[in-house]
């Protein structure tokens, strides 16, 4: 799921521009009497400096709030959800660089926001399924880690009264992984048939397609395997490979709100 461009770099540039206006205005006041009417560049530049700088600092160091544009993480995330992304969970990254001040590391089951490895100007959100060294086995939409038995329990077959339109005809199952339980969505006519793209060199070295809808991978050091909870409608590690640790951006911890569905307000992830 692509979640669009972060505005941190834009806020950084605005902070620099408004900061320059503020500095120039202070120097002018120190040399000349204050004018009876402030110039336009002061009203829309210098006086906004502290507001823009505070927003930039909060987004870089504390939290971000991107919007979800697609259904690849359903049923956990819905189209239109605004996410609360905690940078302090793993540590903030400096703008215009990929330098992190690490406070912690992602854990299996986390919903992670990261820079898309093929285009680091784009941000994606997926669930972290495989840690470095894990053997991830996939079968008919469900996942097993390091030889543990598959643990999935049916929740809905998509035919009940009141089921969401996007879930109609889809199976919702509760999947248990070491450290985290979560819901997944499976299309009963597809059943996880998307296989690993072995044309990707790294996937070819570390993964084996056993049959339609079944494969296993060994996650290489310093990387993670990321999957969407909507197992039959997600472009994830099966297609573009493992996620380098250096591209991790933050941990999605809550849905802030959804303008189309206010029942999503403050939903924990």
Task: Please supply descriptive tags for the structure shown above.
alpha+beta, 269 residues, eight-stranded antiparallel beta sheet, four-stranded antiparallel beta sheet, 5 helices, 19% helix, 15 strands
Task: Please explain how this structure is put together.
The chain has 269 residues and is of the alpha+beta class. It contains five helices and 15 strands. It has helices at residues 8-31, 40-43, 49-61, 201-206, 237-240, and strands spanning 63-64, 81-86, 111-116, 119-130, 135-139, 142-145, 152-156, 171-177, 180-186, 207-211, 214-218, 223-227, 243-244, 248-258, 267-268. Strands 1, 2, 3, 4, 12, 13, 14 and 15 form an eight-stranded antiparallel β-sheet that branches. α1 (8-31) runs antiparallel to α3 (49-61). The two termini are 16 Å apart.
Summarize the structure.
The protein has 269 residues and is of the alpha+beta class. The chain is built from five helices and 15 strands.
Taking the sheet with the most strands, its summary is: 8 strands, antiparallel
* Nearest-integer average pLDDT: 85
> How far do the termini sit from each other?
16 Å
What is the CA-based Rg, rounded? 22 Å
- What percent of residues adopt helix (DSSP H or I)? 10-25%
Number of strands: 15
SSE series: HHHEEEEEEEEEHEEEHEEE
Question: What's the quaternary structure here?
Answer: single chain
Low-confidence stretches: none
Beta-sheet strand percentage?
25-35%
Structural class: alpha+beta
